[in-house]
Amino acid sequence: MSGSVGRKRQKTRSLRALLSSSSPPVPEPNLDDSLLAEILRRLPGPRFLFQCTCVCKQWYSVISSPYFARLFINNHIALLNEDEEEKENNVLVSYKKNPSSVIASCATSPLFGNPDLKTCNVFLRSAHDDPLFQTLDLCFNYLPVKKEPVHVLAAFNDLVLCCAGRTRHFLVNPFTRKWVALPPVPVMGKGRVSCGLVGEPHCVKDSKGDYTFNSQIRYRVALIADALHARTPSVSIYYSEIGKWHTTVLENENALTVCIVHSNVIAYKGKLLWCFGKCIIEFNPFIISKTRYIELPSNCPTPSDNSHILVKCSIGVCRGFLRLVVWECSAAFHNAYVTVWELEDYRLGKWKEVHRRPLLAFVKCHRHWTLPGLGGHPSDPNVMYSIGDDFNIISCDLHTTDFGVAADMSPKLTEHPSVEAFPFVLPLWPTPIPVPPKHS
């Protein structure tokens, strides 16, 4: 009896040994870096590439190299020149057709006021937007903050400037989830502080038509103090290459003699632009001495023209052209209009009126006497965004005057929000976050 049991155990052990010896562990493939790059560059888009960086250290090293980025972009640019069937199967084609979406950043208290700030950030999309935007996460839960809500202050291409609380600022790429913390901002005094972000291009085309990368990319963060209190606009600029803030003062006698028209701050042609007085300031934070003043259209209303008319201006870029959107309504809210101008000659400052519509549905004000217009979509010239009832963000087609809810904010907000909209562009290759110098 015991002998038969022992023989069974011996057979079982020998069978296990046979199975283990017949199934040796498969060795990991050791591909050459150049061969691996040739395989990976055929993936349809950057989203899949950044998922592949988690496979192993070799894949991460190959995909993160500037050589591979240049190889990937040049390969997909070549696909863009093929027939339409091939274009529709390429993820990067949609960048060329419709490269932008809009971030709406909502705050329920003044940005530099109450530290108990409640915020939410959402994407606004037109009907034909890129599906890659759906994979982006705007909760910023990977930033080193505890309970402070993260609020978007500015955007440049695929980079966004965020703040948590009053003084903590971060430069973030939501696509790659890379970020860097900025040093504490200088004291800006009383009044509203507007923010702008602009940087040098990371990917440029050389004389041969190939795409190369700027390894020494620089960017600037600008904080513009409200001139209503200081009587002259002061700008604090963060220099990425030295990791420090410096403050400068803008002086223009013509701009200071009129009532101030506030607007958002945008990046355009490597400069920062915002409305001040009856002009648009074109501020170059890389060369401060080169500041230009572009006069607004002659028939553009301003708060100084009529105290019974409420006016809000916003500027933006649509299909490469600078646009000015003016929302105006009577103090009793009987009449409301939205007017859109386009700067058809940027060098001469020549404007062209492209839309003027009576849109009472855009003027759904609440407790605050403000106009809730946000601006337009950077790719669709007919789409405008505004705040509707119940704090919803609504979109309107100025051509058909059709309205729709772009984002339902009512479950998230219980107070009247302060809302700003920023364009967000997915370039051919995600912009890296420059590391600040160690001495900063």
TrEMBL record:
<feature type="region of interest" description="Disordered">
    <location>
        <begin position="1"/>
        <end position="28"/>
    </location>
</feature>
<dbReference type="InterPro" id="IPR036047">
    <property type="entry name" value="F-box-like_dom_sf"/>
</dbReference>
<dbReference type="InterPro" id="IPR050796">
    <property type="entry name" value="SCF_F-box_component"/>
</dbReference>
<protein>
    <recommendedName>
        <fullName>F-box domain-containing protein</fullName>
    </recommendedName>
</protein>
<feature type="domain" description="F-box">
    <location>
        <begin position="31"/>
        <end position="72"/>
    </location>
</feature>
<dbReference type="InterPro" id="IPR001810">
    <property type="entry name" value="F-box_dom"/>
</dbReference>
<dbReference type="Pfam" id="PF00646">
    <property type="entry name" value="F-box"/>
</dbReference>
<dbReference type="InterPro" id="IPR056592">
    <property type="entry name" value="Beta-prop_At3g26010-like"/>
</dbReference>
<feature type="compositionally biased region" description="Basic residues">
    <location>
        <begin position="1"/>
        <end position="14"/>
    </location>
</feature>
<dbReference type="Pfam" id="PF24750">
    <property type="entry name" value="b-prop_At3g26010-like"/>
</dbReference>
